[in-house]
Structure formats: C-alpha cells, structure tokens
Amino acid sequence: xxxxxxxxxxxxxxxxxxxxxxxxxxxxxxxxxxxxxxxxxxxxxxxxxxxxxxxxxxxxxxxxxxxxxxxxxxxxxxxxxxxxxxxxxxxxxxxxxxxxxxxxxxxxxxxxxxxxxxxxxxxxxxxxxxxxxxxxxxxxxxxxxxxxxxxxxxxxxxxxxxxxxxxxxxxxxxxxxxxxxxxxxxxxxxxxxxxx
Length: 196
Prior knowledge:
Elements: H1 2-9, H2 19-33, E1 37-40, H3 47-56, E2 64-67, E3 69-71, H4 82-94, E4 101-102, H5 111-124, E5 130-131, E6 155-158, H6 161-167, E7 180-183
Parallel strand pairs: 1-2, 1-5, 2-4
Antiparallel strand pairs: 3-7, 6-7
C-alpha cells in the first residue's frame, strides 16, 4: 500500500500547523491528481480533508471510493461501520453513488476469501490511484498493527488492545469494539489507474 506507492512516485512528508491546514494540503493533492479510484480511511484527522474535497467539488460520480478497512461483526448499516461513515461524511455529500463505494465483505462466511476478493476488486478497478491513510497512536497503518508483515495483502487482522481502546469513543462501551477487521495489507497495490 504505502510502500508500493512510495516506490513508484516517491513519498514526501508535509507537516501542517493544525488539522485544518493538513486537510487543505491533502485536498490540494487529491484535487491535483483527480483520482478515478480514491482510497479512503476514517479517523478524525481525515474529516478536514473530506470537508475540503466536498466544498471544492473535487470528486464526481465517476470517482470510486475504496475503504482501507472494515470492522468484522457489526450489524449491517451500523453507524460504526466504516462504509456507513464514509457514505455519510463523503460519498453522499460528494454525490458518489453506492455502486462506487467499495468495502470488504465483512458479512461473508469465509472472511479469508472475502479479503482475497477485495484485493481482486481493487485490481479490477485498476488499482488505487491515491490512498488517504490515518496512522494510529501505536503506529498502525490501516489496521496493520505493529509487526504486520511488509508483504501482507488484504487480510483479516486482530486489533490490539491499544487500538480497541482508542476506538472505544465511537461505541457505547469499550466491550462493543470489534476485535477483528478486514484491512488492506502493506503490500496491497496502489498504482496509477485510468479514470471513468
């Protein structure tokens, strides 16, 4: 994911003074590249970028949004599901149809196969043009906890106690935070792709 992208186009670290400045910088980059397939993450630090993208009209109905990860075990339509969150804060306001909002099938009986299927879907879309990520307090990228193999592809992951505690604020009780997710791996391809 990040490593593959960094190898192809280089990686710059840009530091902003506050979250709004960072959101503007991210929106500038997304708008400049006009990705046909935009990888999205949830997390408080991404909200400013999404608001900025919506205000600019930088995304359109041709844009595909691919979720970085999704919880396993939440009811369909749950407000804590990342698909629900992205629909509410980005896809809906940007006018992106549900058919262009993609997430791993966390309701599948075979979660390993669902992870493989999501990896294949990303390939079918031509790869992710640009990926927005949020790094967790313990350094996790997506839900790739510290120690995840660099060559990992989309997979089922167990969440650490730290990550679950950090995400507890979005749930009624810390015990309600799922302990498993499907997440893109560190080697999931991010590559240039054609637009719609």
